[in-house]
Amino acid sequence: MDNLTKEQRRKNMQRIKAKDTSIEVKLRKSLWGKGYRYRKNYDRLPGKPDIALTKYKIAIFCDSEFFHGKDWEVLKPRLEAGNNPEYWKKKILRNMERDDEVNKALMFMGWTVIRFWGKDILKNCGECIRVIEECIFELNVQGDRTFYGVDDE
Q: Which residues contact 6 (CB under 8 A, 6 or more apart)?
């Protein structure tokens, strides 16, 4: 059950942003501080990556755990016990499908896709930067395009 009233829940949902979220800003500031230049919410690419390193053809997405279905088998029963479970299951499953479609489209276009979970960025932004820099190094050495992300621990 929901611990909030309908009005409180509505206000919470209205405050959820699509761009310039705290996780995006934190990662962008770290990249900028390291001297990397990027495009924000780059609408010339499928999925409008949160950060696009056009020089290296790297698309970076900062995904929230809830809306992108992290640990889906754990989240699904929690949704079923809450309000409007069919809506949320359908929405999150579609988000997960869309993430896969966007990954494939970008890789087909020759871009490397990196996806980070929000908590990984907040707890260990340095590790996320290391993954990006490792990807840049490998692209410079091999000319390879693949999918990267932080390992779930």
A: none
Type of residue found at 131: V
Regarding beta strands 51-53 and 39-40, do their DSSP bridges make them parallel or antiparallel, or are they unpaired?
A: antiparallel
CA pair distance 111, 86, nearest whole angstrom: 34
Q: Is 115 helix (H, G, I), strand (E, B) or coil?
A: strand
C-alpha to C-alpha distance for 135 and 125, rounded to whole angstroms: 15
Classify 87 as helix, strand or coil: helix
10 Å Cβ neighbour count for 27? Answer: 25
* Cβ neighbours of 144 (radius 10 Å): 9
Q: What is the mean pLDDT of residues 45-54?
A: 97
pTM for this prediction: 0.82
CB 63 within 8 A of CB 95: no
Measure the N-to-C terminal CA separation of the chain; round to a whole number of Å.
29
